[in-house]
Amino acid sequence: MQKQTYRILVINPGSTSTKVSLFENEKPRFERSLFHDAPELLRYPHVNGQIPFRYGVILDMLKEEGVEPGDIDVFVGRGGSAQTQPGGVTAIDQRLYDDTEAAVGGSEHPAKLGVMLAWEFARAYGKPAYTLNPTNVDEFCDYARLTGIRGLYRVSHSHVLNQKAVAEADAEKLGKRYEDMNYIVGHIDGGITVSAHDHGRMTDGNMGADGEGAFTPTRIGSVPVLQLLDYIEAHSLEEVRLMCSRAGGFVSLFGTADSDVIHGLVEQGDPKASWCGTP
Fold it and tell me: Residue 42: which of 258, 253, 265, 243 has the closest Cα?
């Protein structure tokens, strides 16, 4: 007899949180989000080192919800950092895990941990694992790749999963298909990306995980190049790389990525939170 109900665990690690949802077919049984302040995650020198911590967080969530991991049929993880790929669903295997772990795609964003965590659960419990629209989806048009330096090209590192989901949801509300529409979509969270969508393809956008665009709770954003060069001369490249994705933005300014804490500092009249341009 064909199984009637499939349990699907969806894992979405971000730069400041681990989000987990359990679906029974298309119906959500629970949706949970656990915030991780930047200093907590910065205890791990490399993003790969967060795997045991986040794996434990997910196990605790499942225990609190009364769910046995072995009863889950499919594990789905947000992804990134592997070689570029088209949009859609991709099965996770050992090769994709290894490429993700090694960041062969060149981006060390915490989203990559979704693929790795889903595969760890899949191997532990003998179930399949998939990823959908990871951050390394690249549908850029050639014009979007150009920079002012010969031989240096822009690539797609963006919040593809959220961007496409929001555009698809809006198109459905309008009674249309995402593939028939044009959109500009903004994702605002621990990272911020804005992208252009042309009839189902994300053809342009900022490289949020690489420090391009607005500064965010954990990222430096775009910085005047000459000032950045001065900063680099006084710091190691590893420090600067960390600032681009995990230790910049609010973390650099306030020592925390938690906006509630920052609002509290403002309300208390803390001078550090009232800084407005002059050191």
Answer: 243
Q: What is the number of other CB atoms lying within 10 angstroms of the CB of residue 155? A: 16
Q: Give the closest residue to 115 by CA, choosing from 193, 31, 51, 43.
A: 51
Unique residue bearing structure tokens 């650099």? 252
Bridge partner residues of 13 (DSSP): 18
What's the rounded Cα separation, in Å, for the pair 228 and 239?
A: 12
Q: Model-level pTM?
A: 0.77
Directed axis angle between helix 113-125 and helix 51-64, to 10°?
A: 60
249 falls within a domain? no
- Per the CB < 8 A criterion, the answer to whether 185 and 218 are in contact is no
Give, as one character, the DSSP assignment of residue 188: E
Range of the domain at 33: 1-134
Percent of the residues in the chain that have a pLDDT greater than 70, as a whole number: 96
pLDDT band of 110, cuts 50, 70, 90: confident
Domain annotation covers residue 247:
no
For residue 249, give the DSSP letter. Answer: T
Ranked by mean pLDDT, the top range of 34-43, 167-176, 222-231, 269-278 is 167-176
| Contact indicator for 69, 124 with CB cutoff of 8 Å | yes
Question: How many domains does the chain divide into?
Answer: 1
Residue 253 lies in a domain: no
- CA distances, 232 to each of 88, 152, 222, 223 (Å): 38, 20, 14, 12
Which CATH number goes with the domain that contains 100?
Answer: 3.30.420.40
pLDDT tens, residue by residue, 45-64: 888 999 999 999 999 999 99
What's the full length of the chain, in residues?
279
169 inside domain: no
pLDDT of 2 reads: 63
Q: Token pair for residue 41?
A: 């995650």
